[in-house]
Amino acid sequence: MVENKRRAYNKQQNRITLSPKSPRTYGNLTKTVTFGIAGKETTTKRYRSNCKTNGFSMILVIPAIDLRGGSCVRLLQGEYEKEKVYFDDPVKMAKLWRIQNAKVLHLVDLDAAKGGPENNRDVIGQICRELDIPVQVGGGIRTIEDVDAALAAGAYRVIIGTSAVLNPDLVSEAISKHGSSRVVVGIDARDGEARIQGWTEGSGLDAVQFAIDMENRGCRRIVYTDISRDGTMQGPNVDAYKTMGSRLKRAKITASGGIGNHKHLIELNTLESFRVDSVIVGRALYENVFPCQQFWCWHMKEELDLTCYSSAPLKTDGTL
After folding, report:
1. How far is it, in rounded angstroms, from Cα 21 to Cα 257?
2. Candidate list 109, 111, 146, 188, residue with the active-site label
3. Would residue 191 show up in a list of annotated catalytic residues for this protein?
4. How far apart are CA 137 and CA 48, in angstroms?
5. What is the pLDDT of residues 164-209, one digit of tens each?
6. Is the pLDDT of residue 118 over 50?
7. Does the annotation mark 188 as catalytic?
8. DSSP for residue 215
9. Could you tell me which of 196, 267, 49, 231 has the C-alpha nearest to residue 185?
10. How far apart are CA 143 and CA 140, in angstroms?
11. Within 13 Å and on the Cβ side, how many CA atoms surround 84?
12. What does CATH list as the number for 57-303?
C-alpha cells in the first residue's frame, strides 16, 4: 500500500498532504517546488520533522551526503586521507535516502570546504531541484554571495562554518537578509576548540562561547560536530551537547558525529531539554546498521522507482 499516515503522495497531482503539526519540529521547513512545463504550476509543501508513535516523539534523523570529486564519501575523524567512497552517483543516493523516508538532507561540499577551486555545486543544485524535501547545504560558504547562490540553487538552509569564525559579521548579515530559518552555523570541534578550513586548522575559539556569540547574533540553529567521533560509529559525545545546550537560550542543536546504532539515537533523544532536536547520520546509514533499512530494499537499488517518494516495496524473498 503506497501510503504513509503522515504523508500521502498523489503522483498524478504531484501533491503531498500532511497530518497536523507534531509536538517537536525541526524549524518551520517550507519548500516551494515547481512542477509542469516551463514552471506553470507551483506547489508549496510544508514539512514537519519528527514523527510521534504511541505518544513517543523521536529525534529527527538527517542523512548526510558528503561530496568529494563528485562522489558520496565519508571521512574518518575529518581526515581527508581516511576517505571511503560509498557511491558515485550523489543524485541517486539522495533519492534513495528520500525513499527511505528522509525528511531533510544534509549536503557538505568537502572540496569547497578546503578552500580550493574544486566544488560540487552543480551536483548540489541538481539534488535540490529533483528532491521534494528541504536540503541544507554546507562547505565553502564564505561570502554573502555564496549564501545567495546556494539558496537560489534550491537549498532550504545554508550552513556557515569557517566563515562564521573568520567573519562573524557574515552570519549577522545573512540572517538579516534571509532570516534565521534559512541560515545556520556549523561548529566543528575537537577537544572543545572550533576547527576551520574543512577541519584542518584550529581557531583558538572555545566552541561553546562561539555558539553563544552566534546565538546573540540571531542564529537559531547550531550544527555541532564532534570531529573525534565523526565516522567512528562509537557513539555521540553526549556531554558536549549537554554542555553547549545548557548555555544556549534560543538556538537549537543538530548533533553530528559518532552515531553507530539505534541505541545512540535513543540516547540523543533524551537531550531535548538540552536543545538537541535532530541528528545527522552518515556512515551508519551507508553501512546499513539499522535493521529497518532492510525494509527499504537497500540491496535492490536498481529496481526502485526513484520517481515515487512515499514508500518503497518491501522485500518478499523471506530473508528478513
Report:
1. 28
2. 188
3. no
4. 19
5. 999 999 999 999 999 999 999 999 999 999 998 766 787 899 999 9
6. yes
7. yes
8. H
9. 196
10. 9
11. 12
12. 3.20.20.70
